[in-house]
Design brief:
The structure holds 2 protein chains of 2 kinds.
Chain A (H helix, E strand, L loop, with lengths): L34 H18 L9 H12 L5 E7 L5 H17 L3 E6 L5 H14 L9 E6 L4 H7 L33 E6 L5 H9 L6 E5 L1 H4 L12 E4 H15 L11 H33 L2
Parallel strand pairs in A: 1-2, 1-4, 2-3, 4-5, 5-6
Chain B lengths: L3 H19 L4 H35 L5 H20 L24 H31 L6 H16 L2 H18 L11 H36 L12
Helix pairs in contact in B: 1-2, 2-3, 5-6, 5-7
The chains are: A alpha/beta, B mainly alpha.
Chain lengths: 307, 242
């Protein structure tokens, strides 16, 4: 099989070093620390707090409170476009905030229109809609929420739905004519939305919704994005974006903000998914800091010795 | 002809979209062009599938390194395609019970939904999660404070790593309290020195400044490149002459 599988020496540990004998004859040598020890430490730093259910207190920051206030400030029963553009790869980071948005909107009895520009995001929409089915049985499909599903075309889809939604979306995700659903029968385009909530893991995502829908047609918008997607969007706040949530930390703070406003939700453990993920994040961050310090101690020690 | 027609299509469509943005009367022209774009984008999925088959079949045929993975890729592609198209295991939709294929292809009872939830989802999540392990390894081996710039970068990284967890408050709040006590400052006036607050400041001031400069630069570049494409100066998107 050796000719079938490519060799990748960069990812293989040196053959003469193993987790048990990594190091010099005089003892454990951190200079040649086998990366598998680091992988093990990282695995444990995530697994142990997760299994123990460690939860730290979170205090919503001003950025998060801005997003919360935008959703909370809408009149009950407002129209909200839930544009969820993320796939399973970003599920761990974005699902808590996506779910928190759904719960917050449901508490406010907003009318929800689910849509996605990512083909792999349709099950993500279904999972968030399942929250409505499970926790808000009064929400009726076609009257209080609708699942528009996916259409190919990336930002091209935004450009069409912002002027004439039914040119691209004649049916919902189940094939039901939108004219037969009370919620969408008179819906011309998404300009009638009171708010766009976008949860995005990349392109097309928040930037495209800002450029082709929110800004040119003056629709209020908030977004929730991954850690790496956060910084390029910060300049859009507060004019083009009313607020933005960045990564799991902001998701946890948003959950806390929702729980402070609606304390009855605290009985449901699913409402604290982001808060539970902050335990592993804290320990993993401390491990990374420790590894950076350790690596630099070795570096400066070697430099002083002239190694 | 092979290059002139695509060039003309690109130029006409591009100018129609620009003009329709500024002249409300022509807005419907732009919408029509976008509908065409969306239809072409759907067809691109077919082209993508064909290209995937071609690339991997060539790799297997030539016994190039890693051809075993190509067999796995093609097998997975064809099996998933068949199960998805045939809607294997999917029950008819409630609204259209008389049509056996009317059910959602992603229904959890179906084969495609099963593949998505039980194979694709954990695999994709695992691939992304591996990043944490490689970052940890890189943190130990590569992040060295070799010069002033690297020290500033590392210092910022420490602040943000602390500030994005509860540890930021836990570590810095006692220091802020101590500074408040010895300086006699008003309670809460030095809260901005807490690591979570400093992280917010880095985000809202330094990052915004840098990103605005980058964004403006990118936008100017896009305008320039778009004009070159529309005027036919840049033809690289058409591929090689062959």
């Amino acid at each position: 099989m050796s000719d079938i599988m490519p060799t990748d020496s960069a990812h293989d540990p040196p053959s003469d070093i193993s987790p048990t004998d990594a190091g010099s004859d005089s003892g454990f040598d951190f200079r040649n620390l086998d990366r598998r020890w680091i992988f093990l430490a990282m695995g444990l730093s995530i697994a142990i707090p997760m299994l123990m259910g460690v939860v730290f207190p979170e205090h919503p920051s001003q950025e998060v409170l801005d997003v919360f206030a935008t959703v909370e400030g809408l009149e009950d029963g407002s129209s909200v476009l839930m544009a969820y553009d993320y796939d399973p790869a970003s599920k761990g980071e974005l699902e808590p905030m996506a779910a928190a948005f759904v719960r917050h909107c449901a508490q406010k009895k907003h009318k929800l229109y689910f849509i996605t520009l990512w083909p792999a995001a349709v099950p993500m929409l279904q999972k968030n809609i399942a929250i409505l089915n499970r926790e808000y049985p009064e929400y009726t499909y076609g009257e209080d929420y609708v699942n528009l599903g996916f259409r190919p075309g990336s930002e091209g889809v935004i450009k069409v739905v912002v002027t004439d939604l039914k040119k691209l979306y004649a049916n919902d995700v189940d094939g039901t004519d939108l004219n037969e659903l009370p919620l969408t029968a008179n819906l011309k385009n998404i300009q009638s939305m009171d708010l766009i909530i976008n949860v995005s893991a990349g392109t097309p995502g928040a930037k495209e919704w800002v450029q082709y829908a929110a800004t040119p047609f003056d629709i209020k918008m908030v977004a929730g994005v991954t850690g790496v997607g956060y910084t390029p969007l910060v300049p859009y706040v507060p004019n083009q974006l009313a607020g933005i949530l960045g990564a799991i930390k902001a998701a946890a703070e948003y959950e806390e903000a929702v729980l402070l406003e609606y304390p009855e939700l605290r009985e449901n453990p699913a409402t604290q998914e982001g808060l539970r993920k902050m335990g592993p994040q804290l320990v993993a961050h401390m491990l990374v800091i420790g590894l950076i310090i350790g690596g630099n101690v070795i570096f400066f020690t070697d430099r002083r010795r002239g190694v | 002809m092979k290059r002139t027609v695509p060039l003309a299509i690109a130029a006409v469509t591009g100018f129609v979209l620009i003009v329709s943005y500024f002249i409300p009367y022509m807005q419907s022209w732009g919408e029509e062009a976008m509908i065409w774009f969306d239809i072409l984008a759907a067809v691109a999925f077919v082209l993508g599938g064909g290209n995937l088959l071609k690339t991997h079949l060539q790799k297997i045929s030539n016994r190039r390194a890693g051809w075993g993975f190509s067999i796995v890729t093609i097998s997975a592609f064809l099996i998933t395609l068949y199960i998805g198209f045939s809607k294997m295991g999917v029950n008819p939709a409630e609204n259209f019970p008389e049509f056996s294929w009317s059910g959602d292809y992603l229904a959890e009872s179906g084969g495609f939904g099963w593949i998505f939830h039980h194979i694709y989802l954990p695999l994709a999540a695992t691939m992304f999660s591996l990043l944490a392990f490689y970052i940890a390894s890189a943190a130990f081996r590569a992040f060295r404070a070799k010069n002033t710039e690297a020290m500033i970068l590392l210092g910022t990284a420490f602040i943000v790593l602390f500030g994005r967890t509860h540890a930021g408050i836990y570590v810095s709040q006692p220091v802020v309290d101590w500074l408040t006590a010895i300086s006699g400052a008003e309670a809460g006036s030095l809260a901005g020195l807490r690591l979570d607050r400093i992280t917010s400041t880095i985000t809202s001031i330094f990052i915004v400044a840098g990103n605005r400069a980058i964004t403006i630069g990118i936008a100017l570049g896009i305008v320039s490149l778009s004009l070159k494409v529309l005027l036919g100066v840049d033809r690289s998107y058409l591929g090689s002459e062959e």
